[in-house]
Amino acid sequence: MRPLRIIGRAWRILFALLGMFLAWCWSRSGLRWLVLAGLLRQRPYRPLENPRIVRRAFEALGPIFIKLGQVIASSPGLFPRRYADEFQHCLDRVPSFPLPRVKATITAGLGRPVEQIFTEFEDAPLGSASIAQVHAARLADGARVVIKVQRPGIARIVDADLWWMRLGAAVVSRLFRGARLANVSGVIRDFDRTIHEEIDFRREAANLDEFNALMARYKLPDVRAPRPVAGLVAPTVLVMERFDGFKADDVARMQAAGIDPGVYLRKGLKAWLMTVMLDGFFHGDAHAGNLMMMPGRDGEPPSVGLLDFGIIGRFDLKQRHQVMRYVLAFTAQDYGALGDIMAEIGAVGQGVDRAALVADLERVYAPLLTKSLGDIHYEEMLPEITALAYRYGISLPSEFLLILKQLLFFDRYAKVAAPDLNVFSDIGLVDFLFTPIAAQSGLDFNVLMPLMMRIQGRVKRG
User: Fold this and answer.
1) Which residues contact 430 (CB under 8 A, 6 or more apart)?
2) pTM of the prediction?
3) Across 169-258, where does the E strand assignment appear?
4) d(CA 131, CA 105)
5) Beta strands of 225-363 (E only): which ranges?
6) pLDDT tens digit sequence for 267-284
7) How many other C-beta atoms are found inside a 10 Å radius of the C-beta of residue 436?
8) What angle do CA 321, 307, 126 make, to 5 degrees?
9) Strand ranges across the sheet with 246-247
10) pLDDT digits (tens, 9 = 90+) for 72-115
11) Within 10 A of 317 (CB to CB), how many other CB atoms are there?
């Protein structure tokens, strides 16, 4: 990485920080209200709160910071709710880049002009994100495809931005205990790893193929990922099958199309859990735009589609056992086992009173595990969870944070699509562990059996 690039980004970051400070002064001094609400009669007047100031600074700093903003927006359980809500703007407000640069990237990546590869090409992008934008097209054989095209120059600024993000995370973690408990440095390390994987589209194509192979082995034909087009994959360009459907939280349109959103959400979540537990492979960015419910076309049955496999989590066998015990402890509502696993993975400090920890885990988490989603009020629970983390120094490893983030995604969709489902404790989501396919996965069921027996006991009692 070139030092001049780091220094150049430093100036931009410093200007953004200065702008944040001036915006804060502008708002707190009352001058902003005087000008906008008083002199210009702007009604209604919206105060310039801190989350809005930070979000605007992220947008000014460009695609990599916008990408981090999307992580914040998608993780209301890991970041303060007011910041997660404000950063929702980063999910759909990324400007597209010009068409000539799109076509130049495709030509350079695939070695042929756009006109020689596609019989149809839509100039207007279907979507534009921080790393790439997507255009629709049609191949000579009539197949409908989408083309994922990387933003020009994105790779050159990734390392410089991440250098400063790591430094900032280290500073705030040293200054603020809350940042240490939230494992901000771990979040940035994970962000570093995933974004480098994301900017090589050949890796994403391999991930798409691997996921589809797993679904075939699990005999789940109605859960799938787009198939990459052979010969049309490059580091900066990915041509793949086009999916048509509805975002996971678009319940009204699903119901109008005759799709039961609860049924298909369960299918998608169960398939995701199977890849985690049986193969240590999982989609690491399952937000609503990447999880589709597809009504089917051309004689195909309805199915669940997962998009954007640039971010993939992988666990070795030891981590798979830890993650499974963690999830199964929730499902079994076994707070003693949950406390033991948290101690084993280093999530709690040394010398913690185990009995007190288990009692507090049950007090705080029981409402989350015993109620349906429609009856859970996170605004009341999150302060309790935060206080618990402070009391015992709870800080989950980054791999567990990535898992938790995906479960929170599914939990959010279930809130509107299947309010009777509890993502964290529904037994039907892990019943595959009692089938032959689980026995063939290399798992040690001597380790897992105590929790599985407790789950079976819950089923019999229920």
Assistant:
1) 273, 277, 327, 328, 331, 455
2) 0.78
3) 223-224, 228-234, 237-241, 246-247
4) 13
5) 228-234, 237-241, 246-247, 281-283, 291-294, 303-306, 312-314
6) 888 999 899 889 999 888
7) 7
8) 160
9) 223-224, 303-306, 291-294, 246-247
10) 776 655 667 788 778 877 766 677 889 999 999 999 999 999 99
11) 12
Which token pair is 427? 């037994």
Q: What value, to the nearest 5°, has the Cα angle with vertex 85 and ends 82 and 87?
A: 105
Six-digit token pair at 248? 């996971």
- φ/ψ region of 133 (left if φ > 0, alpha if ψ in -120 to 50, else beta) reads beta
Query: Quick one: tokens of 211?
Result: 């996921």
| DSSP tally for the chain: helices H, then strands E | 21, 12
Closest C-alpha to 294, from 251, 227, 228, 243 = 243
Nearest alpha-carbon partner for 219 in 261, 270, 263: 270
Is the Cβ–Cβ distance between 305 and 226 less than 8 Å? Answer: yes
Give bridge partners of residue 303 from the DSSP assignment: 294
